[in-house]
Write a structure and sequence with these properties.
This protein is 31% helix and 18% strand. By secondary structure, the chain is α/β, with parallel strands linked by helices. The strands form eight sheets. A seven-stranded parallel beta sheet has the order 4-3-2-1-5-8-9. It has a five-stranded mixed beta sheet with strand order 10-16-21-25-26. The chain has a three-stranded parallel beta sheet with strand order 11-13-15, with helices on one face. The radius of gyration is 23 Å and the shape is globular. The protein binds ligand 0RQ. Ligand 0RQ binds next to α9 and β16. The site of ligand 0RQ has 29 residues, from α9 and β16.
Length: 504
């Protein structure tokens, strides 16, 4: 342990998790490390869960993004989370959110740091940060993610470090910590390429603020993505063919443009599709680096990947962390306000690929709310990227739940990405390039190319009736029918009119 605490001022601060947890009082606001199950603070949350067995208290939990089970399952189920932000992806906490037991702020992931800086989110009582080491200069070296850790450390009243001795030492040097000044005094972020380094290898901290260091040996919870299936592989193929057309049109070259992809199985499958493509010397400028990114590096397709966390399934994790040196000059991990920064996304001209739950005939996308009311995960970084990238692409299967749900509907039941932010829509049926098209021009393209054939007739019927009823307004809708697909699903278990007729 003392080999990892390399600055004298920190050496006398080691305490037990129970002692550190005892400093945390009812009503406090905690800023914790962790981004999509990577680099989470783990042992203090579990000590808090233990304390909750004999004591009633609640805290606000702010993080980078979703966490493993320690916080989002166990803390939620122990009933000690009051407010949670900016992202979660766990059934345990999702159920509490949708049962009105946890307050959830679903935020663009680049926005949290700005709100912490302004004191809107906070003031933070304790930053609890997982670390690989503390350097001679007193820098905190993060582990498998950076997330919001730098801004939490900067703005929190107190800091607790979870020194994790199980992560590979080779992670040191892979982080690039750059924190913009406050708005009004800020200079341009000096990044012109995905591989640029702007800052230091660790997070600067005032040693006086560090109340304690707790030793941890717990590993990250592995990701739960499933391998590509036939439909997600088909989605990837459509997308790759589209990119080939962009090359032919002279808008892209063989090394495309820096790529971003969201989390989840569909997003991972799309990246996996690049393995068999002719594209080369690719760059990734994303937030979460999932398995497929490392497969692409291994295959020599990706020459550099910038992210803010590494989230891998168990087997891939063993391989990658077992031979980290191989990736040393090909990887950088940044704070999420940099990985998701609109200024950089626009400057680098990203191709961003994110996942929709549903999309409507005009191109609005719902990524977060099942049937308009129930939170799934959250918007995450998808909005940061979609609005500001060169190509905002959304992917989804054309149907869900064995065909009872159409992913293409007359009107999405919640809007995360407006029709103005969605350039291209892809399902296993095909691709709709919506760029430069007016709402009414998009409808037939989306129906014919992206909707499941079972749902095409009833989508066309809705549009025809909406045009007739409005006399052809800019965006025709029949307001009393716009959500009828969702109400049919709730009442009768299907959106499919033919099935409804049969039921009658
Ligand atoms: O449920 O597993 O119970 O059958 O939703 O759907 O098709 O397995 O896809 O794992 O890629 O998740 C949008 C949720 C997709 C995710 C979402 C049901 C479906 C299944 C999952 P079952 P799939 P994925 C990076 C950027 C938003 C945030 C984001 C997500 C389950 O990708 O949260 O992109 N994205 N962030 O059956 C009801 C529909 C449905 C539906 C699918 N229309 N209605 N249920 N499902 N469509 C992340 C960060 O920034 C950190």
């Amino acid at each position: 342990v003392f080999k990892k605490i390399r600055n004298e001022q920190f050496k006398g601060k080691v305490v037990t998790a129970e002692e550190a947890a005892s400093w945390i009082k009812d009503g406090m606001k905690l800023g914790m490390s962790g981004f999509t199950r990577a680099g989470d603070a783990k042992v203090i949350p579990m000590a808090l869960v233990e304390r909750a067995k004999t004591e009633k208290f609640k805290v606000d939990v702010y993080t980078g993004a979703s966490l493993g089970p320690e916080v989002d399952q166990h803390m939620a189920e122990a009933g000690i989370i009051n407010k949670r932000l900016p992202f979660q992806a766990d059934k345990g906490i999702r159920n509490k959110i949708n049962a009105d037991e946890v307050t959830y702020v679903d935020q663009h992931l680049s926005h949290t740091a700005e709100q912490v800086r302004q004191g809107i989110v906070g003031p933070i009582d304790f930053a609890i940060i997982e670390a690989l080491a503390i350097t001679e200069e007193g820098l905190i070296i993060p582990t498998t993610s950076v997330g919001n850790s730098a801004i939490f450390v900067q703005e929190a009243k107190n800091v607790i470090i979870e020194l994790n001795v199980s992560h590979p030492e080779g992670l040191e040097g892979m982080h690039d910590i750059y924190t913009p000044a406050k708005q009004g005094e800020r200079q341009p972020i000096p990044m012109t390429s995905a591989s640029d380094r702007l800052g230091s290898i660790g997070i600067p901290v005032d040693p006086e603020k560090v109340r304690g260091i707790v030793v941890s040996t717990d590993l990250d919870a592995p990701s739960t993505i499933v391998p590509p299936d036939e439909e997600t592989a088909t989605i990837a193929n459509h997308l790759i063919n589209f990119l080939r057309e962009e090359i032919k049109a002279g808008r892209l070259t063989e090394n495309l443009a820096p790529l971003q992809s969201g989390v989840g199985s569909v997003a991972n499958a799309v990246f996996a599709g690049f393995l068999d493509s002719e594209f080369k010397d690719l760059e990734v400028y994303s937030e979460v680096l999932q398995d497929a990114v490392f497969d692409l590096i291994d295959a020599g397709k990706v020459k550099f990947a910038s992210g803010c966390s590494i989230t891998l399934a168990e087997e891939k994790g063993k391989q990658v962390y077992g031979e980290l040196d191989k990736y040393r000059d090909k990887l950088v991990l940044r704070p999420q306000e940099i990985s998701n920064h609109p200024e950089i996304i626009r400057r680098l001209g990203l191709i961003s690929i994110n996942t929709a739950l549903e999309c409507d005939i005009y191109g609005n996308v719902n990524s977060t709310h099942v049937s308009g009311t129930r939170m799934m995960n959250g918007i995450g970084g998808s909005g940061d990227f979609a609005r500001n990238s060169r190509l905002g692409i959304f992917v989804t299967k054309s149907y869900a739940k064995g065909g009872k749900i159409s992913s293409i509907v007359p009107f999405v039941s919640h809007v995360d990405h407006t029709e103005h932010d969605v350039d291209v829509l892809v399902t296993e049926q095909g691709i709709a390039d919506l760029r430069g098209l007016a709402p009414k021009e998009r409808v037939e393209l989306i129906i014919e190319n992206c909707a499941h054939p079972d749902y095409r007739p009833q989508l066309r019927a809705y549009f025809t009736e909406a045009v007739a009823q409005t006399g052809g307004h800019q965006t025709p809708h029949i307001l009393e029918k716009a959500f009828s697909w969702h109400t049919n699903l709730a009442k009768n278990g299907t959106m499919l009119e033919a099935a409804l007729q049969d039921q009658k």
